[in-house]
Amino acid sequence: MSRLSFGSRTTILLVAGAAAAWAVTVERMRGMDSGPGTDLGGLGWYLGIWVTMTAAMMLPSAAPAAAHVARLARRVRMPTALFVAGYLVVWTVYGLAAYAVFRLVTSLDTGVLAWDDLGPYVAGAVIVGAGIYELTSLKRSSLDRCRGARHPENALKSGLAHGLDCVGSSGGLMVVLFVLGVMSLFWMALVAAAIFAEKALRHGSRLAPVVAVGLVALGLWVAMSPASVPALTEPGSGSRSMEMGS
Q1: Is 245 inside any structural domain?
Q2: Residue 78 resides in a domain
Q3: In this structure, is residue 38 part of a structural domain?
Q4: Which of 36, 83, 109, 124 has CB 3.0 to 4.6 Å from 219, enough for a Cys bridge?
């Protein structure tokens, strides 16, 4: 099989996998958006939806790197599967860390984070912080590495390295998703589009300042007038409760 065929097959597999993950995510998350501070439910339920969600959001932008690894790994069986496994392991660790932070914050909450108290200001500040992060050297270096593949001779190692680079590049954007409502399909799609644009488009590395400006503006908007932000579900007004287990 030619090198082009290996790369094309890998891209098709990852895009198809992402499409399937999107279908499952839409089915499981429809109507579950409770806005900022959405309860993450039990750990088992959360991990299931998190892995599916990250596969939907991240696999399309990881396809070029995975295809490069697959073209070089002729002597390794299932190089794409090994790459994806390493990549998703890193994002799963990120998700577990986010879950731990959520549980810690909610256990200490004395009411000041309520949406009718300081909640909008805290949410807005976090979003502004994510925008500022887009302009940092860590973001730039992580994005540069995330637009390629490191250690392409070893599929699993390459997937792990690519996951770490992409967490450094897109971790701030995922924090924004948690703040706005991790179960929101709208914000999930918007964050996924920003990640794909930065990682996969030809001049995507130049988009970080544009994303930064957008995030700062959004953060100020959420802080000052959250009720007017389109598609932002104010806490307590979700359409239906979540059956996530304890």
Answers
A1: no
A2: yes
A3: yes
A4: 124
